[in-house]
Specification:
The protein is mostly helical. It is built from six helices and three strands; from the N terminus they run H-E-H-H-H-E-E-H-H.
């Protein structure tokens, strides 16, 4: 039993793993949404949420604690100015993990981790409501394409039937020629 063993090693040394989490969290706060493997996303979540919680204090000491892990000054200022104000009334749960399915090359389970209540996630929802009008048009084109596909299919069956009868006739001619030459 693995009592008191928390976290994933991700196949890396401690220094490499910490550097990975620092880089992922920097990109998460800069872009507010990143795509990575599910295991990395699950490890990143508590790391990044801890940094947001520290940034909500707003003190110089908190800024230095966050700057220990995030080396980009623009991202640190964004975290303290915009993100901490956004999550001021929220008692935790600043990130969301969405499973994306397996990666094509090695079938690794992929996930998207994003900040909750970000501008990018709000803009996606209204765009999803608009496409049903386009789907109706697509259905109409499918109906017309079905009608056109039936006619060539019928022609193709007629052509294959003609080819089969032509092959039978040539086969008969060859057998009759062989019989006449033997006589």
């Amino acid at each position: 039993m693995n009592h008191r063993v928390a976290g994933r090693k991700l196949g890396r040394t401690t220094e490499h793993r910490v550097a990975l989490l620092r880089n992922l969290s920097t990109q998460l706060f800069a872009n507010e949404k990143i795509q990575t493997t599910l295991a990395k996303a699950k490890e990143l979540r508590p790391f990044a949420e801890r940094l947001v919680t520290i940034s909500k204090r707003g003190t110089l000491h908190a800024r230095r604690q966050v700057a220990r892990h995030i080396h980009d000054r623009k991202v640190v200022s964004k975290l303290f100015d915009t993100l901490s104000a956004r999550y001021d009334q929220r008692p935790g749960g600043y990130t969301r993990i969405i499973k994306l399915g397996p990666r094509r090359g090695d079938s690794a389970e992929m996930a998207m981790i994003e900040l909750v209540d970000s501008e990018g996630s709000e803009a996606v929802e209204p765009a999803e409501a608009a496409p049903p009008k386009k789907k109706k048009k697509a259905k109409a084109t499918k109906k017309t394409s079905k009608k056109t596909t039936k006619k060539p299919a019928e022609k193709a069956t007629k052509k294959t039937a003609k080819k089969k009868t032509a092959k039978k006739k040539t086969a008969k001619k060859k057998t009759t020629k062989k019989k006449t030459t033997k006589d």
